[in-house]
Amino acid sequence: MPDFRDLVREHESPLQKLLDLIPGFAGYREKEVRRRADQLLRDHLAGLLDGEKAKLQRRQAELSRARKLEELGALDRAIGLMQKVRDRIRYADYGYAGWFDTPHVNENQLDDMYEYDLAMREKVGLVQERVRAAAGAEGEELQAALAGLTEVLTQLDEMIDKRGEIIAKLVEE
């Protein structure tokens, strides 16, 4: 997976580079690069979760057509939790502080936030594994796979809670 910070820097316009010559503005712009990279990473994670949700929805349709209704409840709950987690990642705060705003978040803190979001990528990888396990399972095997998926999604949801606490502490400092 690319480092989104580098991608944002590569696509800077000549005007943006010229603005960096203004005293104090380069530091502000570097923070914006980090914020934008964090947003791109979170968008990427949300997109991955969208793909996994679509797989579960296809499985849900298969089970529905096969009239295996007893298996749909847990699957529906897992899809709902995945949507909730996806939305929380996609729309999470990213430590914004404008040019004239207080408080300001420094570059190191934004880098730490980016690294934290990268750790969430590892959890999304576990979500993908659990969805693969659920995609071909039926009966008790499906229930066990969905329980594992729900556990990982709950851990990811808790990471998002922790992320919010970290941002709140950064803003207080």
**N-to-C terminal Cα separation, in Å?**
32 Å
Number of strands: 0
Beta strand %: under 5%
Q: Write the element-wise H/E pattern from the N-terminal end onward.
A: HHHHHH
Give the overall silhouette.
Answer: elongated
Low-confidence stretches: 96-103
Number of separate domains = 1
Assign the structural class, choosing from mainly alpha, mainly beta, alpha/beta, alpha+beta, or little secondary structure: mainly alpha
For this structure, the quaternary state is single chain
Number of helices: 6
Helical fraction: over 70%
Using the CA coordinates, give the radius of gyration.
20 Å
**Chain-averaged pLDDT:** 80
Query: What profile does the largest beta sheet have?
Result: none
Layout: helices, strands, pairs:
Blueprint: H1 4-10, H2 14-19, H3 25-65, H4 72-90, H5 107-135, H6 139-172
Walk me through this protein's architecture:
- It is a single chain.
- This protein starts with a helix and ends with a helix.
- It has one domain (4-172).
- The chain has 6 helices and no strands.
- With 173 residues, the chain is an all-alpha fold.
- The longest helix has 41 residues, at 25-65.
- Helix 4 (72-90) runs parallel beside helix 6 (139-172) and helix 5 packs antiparallel against helix 6 (139-172).
- It has helices spanning 4-10, 14-19, 25-65, 72-90, 107-135, 139-172.
- The protein is elongated, with a radius of gyration of 20 Å.
Quick summary of this structure?
The protein is mainly α. Helices cover 79% and strands 0% of the residues. It contains 6 helices and no strands.
